[in-house]
Hints:
Number of helices of chain A: 0
Number of helices of chain B: 0
Shape of chain A: globular
Largest sheet of chain A: 6 strands, mixed
Structural class of chain B: mainly beta
Strand content of chain B: over 45%
Structural class of chain A: mainly beta
Helix content of chain A: under 10%
Oligomer: heterodimer
Radius of gyration of chain A: 13 Å
Distance between the termini of chain A: 41 Å
Number of strands of chain A: 11
Distance between the termini of chain B: 36 Å
Shape of chain B: globular
Order of helices and strands of chain B: EEEEEEEEEEE
Order of helices and strands of chain A: EEEEEEEEEEE
Number of strands of chain B: 11
Helix content of chain B: under 10%
Mean pLDDT of chain B: 96
Strand content of chain A: over 45%
Mean pLDDT of chain A: 95
Amino acid sequence: GENVEQHPSTLSVQEGDSAVIKCTYSDSASNYFPWYKQELGKRPQLIIDIRSNVGEKKDQRIAVTLNKTAKHFSLHITETQPEDSAVYFCAASAWSNYQLIWGAGTKLIIKP
Amino acid sequence: NAGVTQTPKFRVLKTGQSMTLLCAQDMNHEYMYWYRQDPGMGLRLIHYSVGEGTTAKGEVPDGYNVSRLKKQNFLLGLESAAPSQTSVYFCASRPDRGIGYTFGSGTRLTVV
């Protein structure tokens, strides 16, 4: 079945630097790729998503890129701030799937 | 418009007791999901529903039952609670495939 691998499991960056989290998916039919942010003790919240007909999408300091040939997609956060500290989850799904297939999560630590 | 509401928010059960967790959404979403999240871990799918009157097993269904008698409600039941079911339970919904989930705020369940 579909599998999503996410790296790294923990990422520590200096405040103001950029952070990049990468995910690889196995099902070539996958066409929807959301990213969720989960702060400590809170629910996961959708921060950005991308569909297979688009290579890149930006929203202020965050961006997602998709490489369909290599079957991987990445989350980019620029000018990191303390409030970016959280666990980030990637996910993927094909139209035939009723559910999202989740990555294991990346704990992002922003050092002051 | 409350989104996805979960009740209760916290619960302590004794081993062998039963309980029902309620998830209610007011967005007319077709698909609903129950996940569990153990400390420091990712999301694991318990059961899901693709419409009123339907249910399907996810990754970790043992020890749980679900019902979706009304489109807006998705109930998760524990017939005989075990300490291994101590976790945070999240409900999620979405209107269709290819769209992100909206999560509820979670139920923190402790089984002693």
